[in-house]
């Protein structure tokens, strides 16, 4: 089972920070999930929310701020004083920190104003960094997935869903999206879904799982992977810990 460190090792360090990614790597993570947004000057930064409000000491929409302004924010202190001075990283910095042997799931949390722009910038960056093989793109915004597939039919795509839908593979085909994986809310995962996906050559990854018992239960259903804020502990639970 693939265990994605969700926003890095986000129970041990501030989410989506270099500290969280480094902690996940130090813990032996083989896959990492992160969220990407675009600044006013079209730089790709790693942050979950559209605004700085929840996870930094500044306020405002990232789309309205320059990279310099975004990086003035402290994204560590809200989590713990030990991380004060931590800055929102560029996606490029994270890709350079994480070795190519580790799968990086880049979830696009775009503001609609960057529709059609963020996809191109993302593919260019990943190609420039030579990481096409080790990046999996996902988004709840399926227009983003369509566009990524149009620009690079070989790009690995994970289709994110909030809720249960019937025949997701048919829906995706109708939309011109060719997925590598389905990213499913863990409470809706079923054996039927997993079998249906596997019959079509698709993997199923569930978000967000932080309980060992639930991880083992999902593994027994044949699930391919989970997103977890506690990746080391969930890996331990599968090892019998
Ligand atoms: O990609 C899985 C999961 O990260 C989606 O939800 O809100 O944590 O980005 P969220
Ligand atoms: Ca995410």
Molecular structure report:
Helix content is 31%, strand content 19%. With 241 residues, it is α/β, with parallel strands linked by helices. The protein has one domain (2-240): TIM Barrel. Strand 7, helix 7 and strand 8 (203-207) form a beta-alpha-beta unit. The longest helix is centred in the middle third of the chain and has 11 residues, at 118-128. The chain starts with a strand and ends with a helix. Bound molecules: SN-glycerol-3-phosphate and calcium ion. Calcium ion binds at residues 33, 35, 107. Pfam families: GDPD.
- What is the end-to-end distance? 15 Å
- The CATH architecture can be named as Alpha-Beta Barrel
| Bound ligand species | SN-glycerol-3-phosphate, calcium ion
Q: Supply the CATH superfamily name.
A: Phosphatidylinositol (PI) phosphodiesterase
Rg calculated over all Cα atoms: 17 Å
Domains, number: 1
- The fold-level CATH name is TIM Barrel
Question: Strands across the major sheet, in which order?
Answer: 1-2-4-5-6-7-8-9
Proportion of beta-strand residues: 15-25%
Describe the structure concisely.
Pfam families: GDPD. The protein has nine helices and nine strands.
How are the SSEs placed, and which strands pair?
Blueprint: E1 2-6, H1 18-26, E2 31-38, E3 44-46, H2 67-70, H3 91-97, E4 103-108, H4 118-128, E5 135-139, H5 142-151, E6 156-160, H6 168-174, E7 181-185, H7 191-199, E8 203-207, H8 212-220, E9 225-228, H9 231-238
Parallel strand pairs: 1-2, 1-9, 2-4, 4-5, 5-6, 6-7, 7-8, 8-9
Antiparallel strand pairs: 2-3
SN-glycerol-3-phosphate is lined by residues 6, 33, 35, 48, 107, 138, 160, 183, 207-208, 227.
């Amino acid at each position: 089972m693939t265990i994605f460190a969700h926003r890095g090792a986000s129970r041990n360090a501030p989410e989506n920070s270099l500290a969280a990614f480094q902690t996940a790597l130090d813990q032996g993570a083989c896959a990492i999930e992160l969220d990407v947004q675009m600044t006013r000057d079209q730089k790709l930064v790693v942050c979950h929310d559209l605004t700085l409000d929840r996870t930094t000491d500044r306020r405002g929409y990232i789309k309205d701020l320059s990279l310099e302004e975004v990086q003035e924010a402290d994204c560590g202190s809200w989590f713990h004083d030990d991380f004060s001075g931590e800055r929102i990283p560029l996606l490029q910095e994270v890709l350079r920190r994480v070795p190519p042997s580790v799968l990086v799931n880049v979830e696009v949390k775009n503001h609609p104003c960057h529709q059609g722009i963020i996809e191109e910038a993302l593919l260019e960056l990943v190609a420039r960094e030579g990481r096409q093989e080790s990046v999996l793109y996902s988004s709840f915004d399926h227009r983003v997935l369509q566009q990524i597939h149009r620009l690079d039919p070989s790009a690995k795509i994970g289709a994110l869903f909030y809720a249960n839908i019937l025949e997701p593979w048919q829906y995706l085909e109708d939309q011109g999206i060719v997925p590598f994986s389905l990213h499913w809310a863990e409470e809706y995962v079923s054996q039927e879904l997993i079998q249906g996906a596997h019959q079509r050559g698709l993997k199923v990854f569930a978000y967000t799982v932080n309980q060992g018992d639930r991880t083992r239960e999902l593994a027994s259903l044949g699930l391919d992977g989970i997103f977890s804020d506690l990746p080391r502990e969930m890996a331990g639970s599968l090892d019998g810990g």
